[in-house]
Design brief:
This protein is α/β, with parallel strands linked by helices. 20% of the residues lie in helices and 27% in strands.
Length: 188
């Protein structure tokens, strides 16, 4: 069974975002949980059996256990896990309606929290599904998308492998047309 198939068994459908057909291709519409008018569309998504889009914020905050003093109770808005023909990637995405909504250090905490959530899922896959290499070969990418409700402009960010840690997240502002392949960047 593929890692994506296991995740689809593990994660409730209510905590995922379905793909949509768009001109014989797939796309996904991400809606900022706190601002329903704040929508980003990612075009060129992999096929249904190659990807899962998870609402990471649906995972209840572990604040009943952790103090939260280091941001360990935060999570990014979405996690996309994809196993394409060319790359296995875990994409953590935080959306912000405006530029000045949160300080960068807080966004970094949210991205780190999403990574911890996936690490938890990875452990569940290994322990309960018996898949000893579950998600081991995937690379992480971290993205923040800002100014979502501002006038759109062509998204021409320089994409490199530099966004493989939260502190060096890819920052996209005023997105007009986001391609999945640009978000995952680089070579495997």
């Amino acid at each position: 069974m593929s890692d994506i198939a296991i995740l689809k068994q593990m994660i409730k459908a209510t905590a995922t975002v379905p793909l949509e057909a768009h001109h014989n291709k797939k796309q996904v519409k991400l809606i900022e949980p706190d601002l329903p008018s704040c929508i980003v569309t990612i075009h060129g998504m992999p096929n249904e059996d190659q990807v899962i889009v998870i609402k990471a914020d649906a995972f209840q905050s572990p604040s009943t256990i952790f103090s939260g003093s280091k941001g360990e109770c935060k999570r990014a808005d979405f996690v996309i896990v994809a196993d394409t023909d060319t790359k296995k990637v875990i994409l953590c995405i935080e959306m912000k309606a405006k530029t000045k909504t949160s300080p960068e250090w807080e966004i970094i905490q949210q991205l780190k929290g999403a990574k911890c959530f996936i690490t938890y899922c990875q452990k569940i896959g290994k322990e309960f599904w018996g898949e000893k290499n579950f998600l081991d070969t995937y690379v992480y990418r971290f993205v923040t998308i800002r100014n979502i409700n501002i006038n759109k402009r062509t998204t021409r960010e320089k994409i490199t492998d530099a966004h493989s840690i939260p502190e060096q997240m890819l920052k996209i502002s005023s997105p007009n047309y986001i391609q999945f392949s640009h978000l995952i960047g680089g070579k495997q």
